[in-house]
Amino acid sequence: MPTRPRPRPLLIWAGLLILYVVWGSTYLGIAIAVDTIPPFLMAAGRFALAGAVLLGWSILREGRSFVWPTRREWRDTSIVAALLLGGGMGMVAFGEQTVPSGITALLIAMMPVWVAILGGIFLGERLPRIAMVGIVVGFGGVAILAGPSVVGGEGALDPLGLAAIIISPLSWSAGSLFASHRATLPGRPLVATGAQMLAGGLVLLAMGTLAGEFGRLRIEAISAESLGAFLYLTVIGSLVAFTAYGWLLRVAPLPLVATYAYVNPVVAVILGALVLSEPIEPRQLIAGAVIIAAVALIVTARGRMRAPGLPPTPDRAAVRPASAPSPAPATARSEAARPRDSRAHSRPG
């Protein structure tokens, strides 16, 4: 097969910069958006709009050759969407009502730890010793952040918001593993992503209804800042950054692309301090360093793992690496082409 020319390094780094800055800034965007928009309804509108754009573009581009997802694909897509967007992004939006965006980003960065744990429990993966060390180190970082909230000391966070933020990467990890190992999803990435966004929007709409958010929604009370943040999350966070991410997966080494998992929390902490005047305490800096070190250990260890019979070629890696939720949902390939390991998976935030 002919080999496509590799893009210039400057273009690759430009794409990485988009992921670093845009996905790191989504935590700030969510915090501003939920200031005057109920969290579940905000997330529902964001993903429903982005999903409609992606599906609409796919239909226009493919014309009569466009194939709608099958009933089973819609079923599995809905399950993945409920876990990724409902439990993953919905809990982030809910939690950021009371938890600072920088701390949220640090706790969400624990996602590779949860992927490693759930992969061992449900898939029987035998993790290298260094990955086990990373798991222990990661929970040590969480203990540093959440400790005052448990014992009621200075710097305690809202327990409900903290619980939501901790649940988010756990739900995202479960959805990612299901998408990459069990689910039958549409084979075309844009169709799969658009369908997941639409299904996730419906799940989040139901969550908002059950939470009574329609009774608290006041259209006239939505600030210009919240509306701008909502549009930014929908257009830049979901559509632009996801397009850059999908391009990078095709042209750049997966370990290089996965570095956004380390950079996003740092960007989120800095932006939260600059824009929202969120305090950066020594405890937060220490916990952040510990969690990022844990993520580096696990991602490095899992990057060396490979499923039997699957050579580590670029086409096998065309899925999202286990990391923090970003602004676009998991894009899985067809059943026949999906790798049977969980070192990486595709996806929103």
Q: Structural class of the helices, strands and pairings?
A: mainly alpha
Q: How much strand?
A: under 5%
Integer-rounded radius of gyration? 19 Å
| Count of the domains | 1
Average pLDDT rating = 82
The low-confidence runs, each spanning 5 or more residues with pLDDT under 50, are: 306-328, 331-348
Number of helices: 13
Fraction of residues in helices? 55-70%
The largest pleated sheet is described as: none
Give the SSE order as H and E letters.
HHHHHHHHHHHHH
Determine the N-to-C terminus distance: 36 Å
Query: How many distinct beta strands?
Result: 0
**What general form does the structure show?**
globular
Can you walk me through this structure?
- The protein is mainly α and 349 residues long.
- It has one domain.
- Helix content is 68%, strand content 0%.
- Helix 1 packs across helix 4 (101-108), helix 2 (39-62) packs antiparallel against helix 8 (189-210) and helix 5 crosses helix 13.
- The longest helix is centred in the C-terminal third of the chain and has 28 residues, at 224-251.
- The protein starts with 8 loop residues before the first helix and ends in a 46-residue tail after the last helix.
- Residues 306-328 and 331-348 have low confidence and may be disordered.
Give a quick set of tags describing it.
mainly alpha; 13 helices; 68% helix
Question: What does the secondary structure layout of this molecule look like, with pairings?
Answer:
Layout: H1 9-33, H2 39-62, H3 71-95, H4 101-108, H5 111-122, H6 129-151, H7 159-181, H8 189-210, H9 213-216, H10 224-251, H11 254-257, H12 260-276, H13 282-303
